[in-house]
Specification:
With 328 residues, this protein is α/β, with parallel strands linked by helices. Among the domains are: 99-173, no CATH class; 241-322, no CATH class. It has 12 helices and 12 strands. The strands form 2 sheets. Strands 6-7-8-3-9-10-12-11 form an 8-stranded mixed β-sheet, with helices on both faces. Strand 4 (63-72) and strand 5 (75-76) form a beta hairpin. It starts with a strand and ends in a 12-residue tail after the last strand. The mean pLDDT is 91. The structure holds iron/sulfur cluster and magnesium ion. Residues 249-250, 287, 289-290, 293, 295-297, 300, 305, 318-320 line the site of iron/sulfur cluster.
Length: 328
């Protein structure tokens, strides 16, 4: 079966005084119908640019896709006109950002904002659109939706606003939702509620989700598959269990060890990976992780590892995957 989204060798970035500056480096990923893929990584790893490039919102941020394909139901979005992208973004794909306030218009009632999108993309009439908007507010767990629909964003809490944004994203029944750090700006209790909501929507509506997060706990809770990004590239990809229970790439191992309590262990000393992420435009020769890797070998300094199907079932961009399995 065909994947809903298939990204192939996506290199995207920004034109600067010093020429083209890459933010993603030949990123490939795929999302099946009804699945949730989480891209995890530290800030600056290229996660957000990947999502902006998929949506072609990167064009508005002064960037562009340099090479590669973004196949949405087999249709390549990389070369589309913005006019066509606007139609696709409104109806087939929707995006949820970190800050709900920036996604909402302060001068319109929240119900009106959802209704407007339904009139534009679904060609609903006034009354029908309003009724559906109220219904969507109910779906995302907003109490007294008939009353709330008449409120303005500033009359609502951050968590309620993010629910409105999710309602707006869902209103036109998109097949893919891209959420970039959707809970990061919210306090911990509200974060958990929004995650529960996303998990519920995924179960009930079978929407595919691409979730971008730096938070491994968030990823563990909602993802089917995980892609770990480092310095613009995906360095490990597999199911949640494969990647979190049995990480293959030394970077993933370090990342997981630096998170408190993910494995239920408390009080364990936190690990930090030595060094920092290199600039994607000034990578070391060979493996991009080699300056920081505790297992670096000769080959790592010369040859760049592709994503190799490895011992634990997932794929990892690491030459260790080609060594014979321990004890075998
Ligand atoms: Fe470390 Fe080598 Fe694997 Fe890179 S390829 S992560 S340097 S062992
Ligand atoms: Mg980001």
């Amino acid at each position: 079966t065909q994947n809903l989204l298939e990204v192939r060798n996506l290199t995207a970035g920004f034109e600067t005084e010093n020429g083209f500056v890459k933010a993603t480096d030949r990123v490939s990923l795929s999302i099946a119908q009804g699945q949730t893929l989480c891209i995890v990584g530290e800030s600056g790893s290229g996660k957000s640019v990947t999502s902006l490039a998929i949506m072609r919102l990167i064009d508005y941020a002064g960037g562009f896709i340099e090479s590669g394909e973004v196949l949405f139901k087999g249709d390549n979005l990389a070369g589309k006109k913005q006019q066509d992208m606007m139609r696709i973004r409104g109806s087939k794909m929707a995006m949820i950002f970190q800050d709900p306030m920036s996604a909402l218009n302060p001068v319109f009632k929240v119900g009106e904002q959802i209704a407007e999108s339904l009139r534009t993309h679904k060609k609903l009439g006034e009354k029908e659109a309003w009724a559906k908007a109220v219904d969507m507010l109910r779906v995302v767990g907003i109490p007294s939706p008939e009353i709330r629909a008449h409120q303005y964003p500033h009359e609502m809490s951050g968590g309620m606003c993010q629910r409105v944004v999710i309602a707006m994203a869902l209103a036109c029944e998109p097949e893919l939702i891209i959420a970039d750090e959707p809970t990061t700006a919210l306090d911990v209790t509200v974060q958990a509620q929004i995650l529960d909501l996303l998990a519920k929507l995924k179960r009930e509506l079978k929407t595919s989700i691409l979730l971008i997060t730096h938070d491994m706990g968030v990823a563990a809770e909602i993802a089917d598959r995980i892609a770990v990004m480092y310095a613009g590239a995906i360095v490990e990809e597999g199911t949640v269990d494969q990647v979190f229970q049995n990480p293959s790439h030394p970077y993933t191992v370090g990342l997981l060890r630096s998170i408190p309590g993910l494995d239920g262990e408390r009080g364990a000393e936190l690990y930090t990976i030595k060094g920092s992420i290199p600039s994607i435009n000034d990578l070391p020769t060979g493996c991009r992780f080699n300056p920081r890797c505790p297992y670096v070998m000769d080959r790592c300094l010369r040859e760049e590892p592709p994503l190799i199907p490895g011992k634990n079932g997932q794929r990892a961009a690491c030459w260790l995957e080609e060594l014979p399995k321990e004890g075998a």
